Amino acid sequence: xxxxxxxxxxxxxxxxxxxxxxxxxxxxxxxxxxxxxxxxxxxxxxxxxxxxxxxxxxxxxxxxxxxxxxxxxxxxxxxxxxxxxxxxxxxxxxxxxxxxxxxxxxxxxxxxxxxxxxxxxxxxx
Length: 125
Prior knowledge:
mainly alpha; single chain; flat
């Protein structure tokens, strides 16, 4: 059996997004009806041209959140981690996993019992 992947016939043109990366904000095409909702701190949208597929607002929001998180990480000073600290973290996580496993054995997941068989009720008196 030979697997053939479908061919990609159209690739969205994000050249405007790449050009805008020189500034502090990234701009991506969105559906014209979503344009008013597409302005975030690091990412904004512009109305997609006719026939161009826009980026969903949810993906813009996720991208904005990722950029914000990365910029916060970049601002924080790096603190060196000693091997003792790493060993302590490993032990802590190991204990947490063991506690969770013990709790699972003591109270395993029981799925919801099946619903009773359907009944026909006559409401006419």
